[in-house]
Design brief:
It contains seven helices and nine strands; from the N terminus they run E-E-E-E-H-E-E-H-E-E-E-H-H-H-H-H. It has 321 residues and is α+β, with helices and mostly antiparallel strands. Among the domains are: 110 residues, Ku70, Chain: A, Domain 2; 42 residues, no CATH class. Helix 4 runs parallel beside helix 6 and helix 5 crosses helix 7. The longest helix is centred in the last third of the chain and has 19 residues. The chain starts with 6 loop residues before the first strand and ends with a helix. The relative contact order is 0.11.
Length: 321
């Protein structure tokens, strides 16, 4: 059964319209999150708004909005004054134009939504609008009011439904020149460029998000299991080892293509490399060349039983999302 709709309204193309339901296509609720607690009592903490000058708590009835025009000088804004400025929502996404989807600057993409027909009566009209865009590489641009603000939304076919992505306004996008202007113009040598292009070709693959792995989330799960089982956990960060010997960029590119190991040094023997492995072996200052294996607790039934017992609530929590 589909989840409860986040937004309901109509999709309109000229004189054709159909009722639709809109739901967020992404969620952060799957991430592990923490609460602020009192370390002495273990109770959860609640935030309280206080006056910046008097340091006294402020009642809800006395809280308002203000726009700062100078230091410690504000224009008081009433809620009903803001309500008068709000764009009235007609709960309709009216398609204004169709643009090549490839022309939409990725910086403008904001939040994705799944859009589907909301009743049987409008399913045919929904299918007409969807199929008219299918295979043409275009996105429909419309406007929608969500949470009192009007947003531009781009619609594209996705399976049996539509993917709607709200777009940012130009004033929300920072100027790239402010960040890239100081990058020097470098003329890359032809041989060096060919080697890098070869590495790009050998590492080419299809986009497959199922291969994405959140290493930090996995580490958090394992950490919580150990904490729940009262097993020892690591604290602090390991000190970085001394920087490795610097090699030239051309040598790194050649070895990446050849799959050869690093040049031998007096202190260590060359490390064997897997045949066919091709990596960009550029020196990284401060990177640790070897790590000590984590200390392992001595095997014993009580610790193992406690860890297995502690794993159950976490696994149940993650599977029930």
């Amino acid at each position: 059964m589909a989840p409860r709709a986040y937004w309901k309204g109509y999709l309109k193309l000229s004189l054709v319209s159909c009722p639709i339901a809109v739901n967020p296509a992404s969620s952060l609720s799957e991430r592990i999150s923490f609460r602020q607690i009192n370390k002495k009592t273990g109770h959860r903490l609640r935030q309280q708004l206080i006056d910046d000058e008097t340091r006294e708590p402020v009642d809800a009835a006395d809280r308002g909005k203000g726009y700062e025009v100078a230091k410690n000088e504000y224009i008081l804004i009433e809620n009903d004054e803001l309500e008068a400025l709000e764009i009235e929502s007609n709960h309709t996404i009216e398609i204004d134009s169709f643009v090549p989807a490839a022309q939409i600057d990725k910086r403008y993409y904001d939040s994705p939504y799944y859009i589907m027909p909301n009743d049987k009566v409008g399913q045919e009209a929904f299918a007409v609008i969807r199929d008219a865009m299918q295979g043409r590489g275009v996105a429909a641009l419309g406007r929608v009011v969500m949470a009192t603000r009007e947003r531009v939304i781009a619609l594209e076919p996705l399976g049996k439904g539509l993917l709607g992505t709200t777009l940012r306004y130009p004033y929300e996008i920072r100027n790239a020149d402010e960040y890239f202007d100081e990058i020097p113009d470098i003329k890359v040598a032809g041989e060096m460029l060919k080697l890098a292009e070869h590495i790009v070709e050998t590492k080419s693959a299809d986009f497959d998000p199922s291969q994405f792995k959140d290493h930090y989330e996995d580490a958090l799960v394992e950490f919580l299991r150990k904490k729940q089982a009262h097993l020892p956990v690591k604290k602090g960060r390991e000190e970085p080892a001394a920087a490795r010997n610097v090699i030239s960029l051309m040598d790194a590119l050649r070895r990446s293509v050849q799959g050869a190991g690093p040049a031998p040094t007096a202190a260590k023997k060359p490390r064997k490399r897997i045949e066919g492995q091709k990596e960009m072996l550029l020196p990284i200052e401060g990177k640790q060349s070897s790590r000590e294996p984590p200390s392992k607790a001595k095997p014993g039934r009580p610790a193992r039983a406690a860890e297995e017992a502690s794993a159950r609530p976490l696994e149940k929590r993650r599977s029930s999302r």
